[in-house]
């Protein structure tokens, strides 16, 4: 249920931002709040705590963000605290970014490689992925030395594993099954 509520809040938030023609400014607000929540576990715990009353949560959020974000964002924070939904803030921000990306034709793709990719490799990879998906690509890069070589690409729920580790595992399975027969 909470995920549905978070999606509804995020949808209303982005639609209102588009209507008021402040979508990019609100996206900056979302990034700022996400960064603050990510860097402050205390704030996250504070917002999720049932022991802290909603007036204190509201006052804290207003104090932290009022001078830094759009009035629409402050309005959202007030609504969330008034309805005791502030614990959904993380999810709302995530869904907002998802809706924003859909609106702008952006797709997030996770790349896990055995080694750091140089700028030219990243540029070529992005170009190929944009051609394949027909969307603007934002890469989330990670390094995992256990892959030995190659890379894994995750696009939504699809994983393309081109790592040496995966290829060796497949080879081992084929050799093992052939030896058993």
Describe the structure.
By secondary structure, the chain is of the alpha+beta class. The protein has two domains: about 1-100, N-terminal domain of the delta subunit of the F1F0-ATP synthase (Peroxidase, domain 1, Orthogonal Bundle); about 105-180, no CATH class. The protein has eight helices and four strands; from the N terminus they run H-H-H-H-H-H-E-H-E-E-E-H. The protein has helices at about 1-20, 25-40, 40-50, 55-65, 70-80, 90-105, 120-135, 165-180; strands spanning about 105-115, 135-145, 150-155, 160. It has a four-stranded mixed beta sheet. Helix 7 (about 120-135) links the parallel strand 1 and strand 2. The longest helix is centred in the N-terminal third of the chain and has 18 residues, at about 1-20. The mean pLDDT is about 90.
Short description:
This protein is α+β, with helices and mostly antiparallel strands and 181 residues long. The protein contains eight helices and four strands. It is elongated.
Q: What's the gyration radius in Å? A: 21 Å
Biggest sheet details: 4 strands, mixed
Q: What global shape is seen?
A: elongated
Number of helices: 8
What's the CATH class of the largest domain, please? Mainly Alpha
Based on the model shown, name its key terms.
Peroxidase, domain 1, 2 domains, alpha+beta, about 65% helix, about 180 residues
Task: List the SSEs and their pairings.
Blueprint: H1 2-19, H2 23-39, H3 41-48, H4 54-65, H5 71-82, H6 89-104, E1 106-113, H7 119-133, E2 136-143, E3 151-155, E4 158-161, H8 164-180
Parallel strand pairs: 1-2
Antiparallel strand pairs: 1-3, 3-4
Helix pairs in contact: 1-6, 2-6, 4-5
């Amino acid at each position: 249920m909470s995920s549905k509520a978070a999606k509804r809040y995020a949808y209303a938030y982005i639609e209102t931002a588009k209507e008021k023609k402040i979508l990019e400014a609100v996206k900056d607000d979302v990034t700022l709040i996400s960064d603050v929540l990510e860097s402050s576990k205390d704030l996250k715990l504070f917002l999720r705590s049932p022991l802290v009353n909603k007036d204190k949560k509201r006052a804290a959020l207003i104090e932290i963000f009022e001078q830094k974000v759009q009035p629409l964002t402050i309005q959202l924070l007030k609504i969330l605290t008034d309805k005791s939904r502030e614990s959904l803030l993380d999810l709302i921000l995530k869904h907002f970014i998802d809706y924003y990306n859909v609106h702008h034709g952006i797709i997030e793709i996770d790349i896990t490689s055995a080694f750091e990719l140089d700028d030219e490799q990243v540029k070529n990879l992005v170009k190929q992925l944009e051609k394949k998906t027909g969307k603007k690509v934002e890469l989330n890069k990670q390094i995992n030395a256990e892959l030995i070589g190659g890379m894994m690409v995750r696009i939504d729920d699809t994983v393309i594993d081109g790592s040496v580790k995966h290829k060796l595992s497949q080879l081992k399975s084929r050799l093992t099954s052939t030896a058993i027969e």
